[in-house]
Amino acid sequence: MEGLVLLNALVTRLLFFLHSLIGVWRVAVVKKEPRYWLLALLNLLLFLETALTLKIKRGRGYKWFSPAIFVYLINIVPSLWILEVQHGNQYCGSQSEELSQNASSKEDFNQTLMSSEDAHGGDSLIETAKVFVNNLSTVCEKDWTLGLHQTFLLMLIIGRWLLPIGGTITRDQLSELLLLFVGTAADILEFTSETLAEKTVRNNPGLVYGILCVWTWSMLQFPLDLAVHHVASPLSLRARGFPSLFFCQYSADLWNIGISVFIQDGPFLIVRVVLMAYFKVFNQMLVFFAVKNFLVVMLHLYRLVVLALGARASLRRRPEDLKGVRGGPAEPLESGVSPGAWEGESKEDVAVPLRASPGTPEDSPCTP
């Protein structure tokens, strides 16, 4: 079992490294400057994180946070920023030029394959790889950037699935988290492809930087596991009042609402409203997704009110429950001694004071 955990940890980080390296290669090809290969040095952080995780956690993850995904974001996001900024200056040739280039590249590739079959040497494999890379370079840069965005979001989902489970997260919670990631990734991809495709946006570098900042901010939710952690609230928290009971009993729901309102749907709604109101950018998809973001924010706020009313009602029921306890034979329980102890029962019948519910972790902030 430990061997499988180590294998999953290493394979996932290897995929992160290869994908980030492809992003750096595309930046170097687009900018045509070798100095951009220095971006590959960011992968040293991934190697450091891998070594520390293997030594300290034996390949397993951490509680509430995934350092591997966070470091992967640090590696790949700068490359995507540069490609998107350069995106406005990229030119995709006409269809006839692309067809002629593809035809010539296919002929070169076939000739290389034929020569490799005749030579059967190591040099032929190198030449084949070079021709294959050249064929990839003929793909339109806009398609390359979009492809990197798509594979980037897929890598986040697949990588989180392959990473060993750590902390207190269960497989059921992991499946719930992956489903959240799928919906989130689709919305994020639509946000970048829809807004950055507008000519008005491309002609305004400041607006492009602002959209990329909001996009980067939305990426910070992927290393977090807080939206699926359900913390049990001990009975003693009821005595502390509404805030303690509310934040501990509905911790997962509150994190989910906060992530949606402040990290994803809220910022996306602001950007789309600014585009329509100030920059006069209108299209059918932009209006539709703006309405969608508005409905999601409103529904989350409505759910927040419902949860608050539920916690308030729970506190109001508590005095009635205590009144019934005081009027019955269980009244001495508040002093920590069962009624039978006053009638000469054994010491095993003495009640133990309640500290925390069995489902509450010892290091949980909701533990009294």
TrEMBL record:
Protein name per UniProt: Transmembrane protein 26
Membrane-crossing residue ranges in chain numbering: 7-28, 34-52, 64-83, 254-279, 285-309
UniProt region (Disordered), positions on chain: 321-368
Record-linked Pfam families: Tmem26
Native source organism of the sequence: Pipistrellus nathusii (Nathusius' pipistrelle)
Source taxonomy: Eukaryota, Metazoa, Chordata, Craniata, Vertebrata
Keyword set, alphabetical order: Membrane, Transmembrane, Transmembrane helix
